[in-house]
Write a structure and sequence with these properties.
Blueprint (H helix, E strand, L loop, with lengths): L1 H4 L3 E7 L4 H7 L6 H9 L1 E6 L6 H10 L3 H4 L5 E3 L5 E3 L10 H7 L4 E4 L13 E4 L11 H9 L9 H5 L5 H25 L4 E6 L1 H9 L5 H25 L4 E6 L3 E4 L2 E4 H7 L19 H14 L11 H10 L14 E2 L12 E3 L6 E6 L14 H13 L10 E6 H5 L10 E5 L3 E4 L2 E2 L5 E2 L7 E4 L1 E8 L4 H4 L9 H8 L12
Parallel strand pairs: 1-7, 1-8, 5-6, 5-7, 10-16
Antiparallel strand pairs: 2-20, 3-4, 8-20, 9-19, 10-18, 11-17, 12-13, 13-15, 14-15
The protein binds zinc ion.
């Protein structure tokens, strides 16, 4: 334990949704000197995210050094045997984040808005403001007062206004920029005021803006100022730790990348059109299923107002919750419904005649489940499983994009990735789309396979985020050959402070 006594400091800056291409494209032109310093003085590299590359799974991997199959969070939701979607959450009491592990060894941390970490630390050694997607909670009155003083209230919840077109992307960018600046100033104040071994500040506004902006012609105008502001904070941290003559390491990490989205592939429409899935007879002709459109809109608006989609409905009364489950991913103006496209749900499938269906993961990675005995309305018996799986994989491989080239660039086995689990039903096939495409399981068309992305899908996640390292203990040569993934981050931090318990996954 002697090495723990050496006073070392570590600063970790988290940027939700930051790919290398974006930083490299913007940094010179917009004077992002903080980011530039990583490449000049240390390293700035690609960081492999989880499958699928989603915030809900990737941050817990960063915090724990575990893969999704180990920490058990595949996405915000999972699917149960009755085809309903259930919330899943990262549980820090089961799989402690690095700051809690270090706290047990007597090290003090400041942790500001870690994405997906919604609970205060059990240790007094951790000053924490909890992260997105819920409203911030504070580990002490001191923190709460400081946040108030700097005008920091967490990431602004303006998704509904944006989707309804009541707020422009430029206006949203300004709001997000204000909250990034407030978080930075608050963090600077606390770093000055208290003496921490570890400081972790996590910025999430960048993930929100990219979804609305990346494929717009004017994307740079609304996106660049956010990254520039975070880069300024990084630069301040580097200057500060140098000025204080600290023995420190500065790390930059993002949970996944981002890319402009030009087209959506409708996976369930494809499964139906190819005879792998069947919808109930009346679904194709009904204009809106279940409850009336105005009621649906009203509920959805309420959901969006209460907080961020998905994260809120476990706090709602049962009946409302059931309806909300069907509405969380719905577009607000329902512009496509009644045209060539209509929204479909798991309940719209004739499951007894459905061999496979897609759910849960929008984005560059799609997920397909074989409708076997794990589900309540089994549509495929055990003798068919291998053949159907192979048929779907081979058909996926043969798919052409709207441009005529290969649409699916990778196929992954869900069981191999997640292992056999008791707590959720693992997808059988995961498939990766080509650049600038995402998959979408929530629309049906009997004639179309592609659809233009909605207003909140103009950008989406890509599989490579970034990792940056600058500091005395960084051996860049040693790292230059190896592939670095999100689960290497936590163990590297632990090893830096002398905890070798996850040495195999550490970069040091
Ligand atoms: Zn993210």
């Amino acid at each position: 334990m002697a090495d723990l006594i050496v006073r070392k400091k570590l600063y970790l800056i988290g940027v939700d949704s930051a790919p290398l291409w974006l930083i490299e494209k913007l940094q010179k032109k917009h004077g992002m000197h903080g980011f530039e310093k990583f490449a000049k003085e240390g390293m700035l590299r690609n960081l492999e995210s989880t499958l699928p590359p989603v915030t809900a799974a990737a941050w817990p991997s960063i915090y724990t050094g575990l893969e999704p199959g180990e920490h058990g969070v595949m996405d915000f939701l999972c699917i149960d045997s009755k085809y309903s979607k259930q919330l899943i959450y990262y549980d820090p009491s089961k799989f402690p984040p690095f700051w809690d592990t270090l706290a047990k060894k007597g090290l003090r941390s400041l942790v500001i808005t870690p994405a997906m970490s919604l609970q205060k630390s059990p240790s007094d050694n951790v000053d924490i403001i909890t992260g997105w997607p819920l409203q911030p909670r504070y580990s002490s009155k001191e923190l709460e007062d400081a946040a108030k003083e700097f005008g920091f209230k967490g990431e602004p919840e303006i998704g509904l206004e944006l989707e309804k077109g009541e707020m422009s992307v430029e206006q949203a960018s300004k709001r997000y920029l204000r909250s990034i600046k407030a978080r930075s100033e608050l963090s600077k104040y606390l770093i000055h005021k208290n003496d921490y071994d570890l400081v972790f500040v996590c910025f999430t506004e960048t993930d929100r803006i990219q979804h609305y902006a990346l494929s717009l012609d004017s994307w740079e105008k609304s996106v660049a100022p956010l990254y520039k502001s975070i880069s300024d904070f990084v630069e301040w941290v580097m200057d500060y730790t140098a000025k204080e003559k600290e023995n420190s390491m500065v790390m930059l990490v993002s949970d996944h990348g981002a890319q402009p989205i030009k087209n959506k592939f409708l996976i369930n429409a494809w499964l139906v059109q190819n005879g792998f899935a069947k919808l109930k007879g009346d679904v194709k002709t009904k204009s809106a299923s279940g409850i009336g459109t105005s009621v649906r809109k009203q509920i959805r608006e309420r959901v969006m107002k209460i907080g961020i989609r998905r994260a809120v409905y476990n706090a709602m009364p049962g009946a409302l919750r059931k309806m909300v489950e069907r509405l969380v991913d719905e577009i607000p103006d329902e512009q496509y419904i009644g045209g060539q496209y209509r929204k479909i749900y798991e309940t719209d499938f004739d499951m007894r005649s459905t061999k496979a269906f897609a759910a849960i993961s929008f984005g560059t990675i799609g997920m397909i489940w074989l409708n076997d005995k794990r589900f309540s309305s089994q549509g495929i018996d055990s003798s068919e499983i291998g053949r159907v799986k192979e048929a779907i994989i081979s058909a996926l491989k043969g798919l052409k994009s709207a441009e005529g080239d290969k649409l699916v660039i990778g196929i992954y086995d869900g069981k191999r990735y997640y292992g056999n689990r008791n707590d959720f039903i693992v997808p059988d096939i995961m498939f990766e789309m080509k650049e600038n495409y995402i998959n979408d399981f929530s629309y049906f068309s009997s004639s179309e396979l592609f659809m233009e992305p909605e207003i909140n899908r103009k950008g989406d996640h890509s599989r490579l985020g970034i990792i940056g390292l600058v500091g005395s203990g960084v051996d860049i040569k040693k790292m230059s050959k190896r592939k670095i993934a999100v689960q290497n981050v936590g163990p590297t931090i632990l090893a830096y402070f002398g905890d070798k318990s996850m040495k195999d996954r550490s970069l040091l």
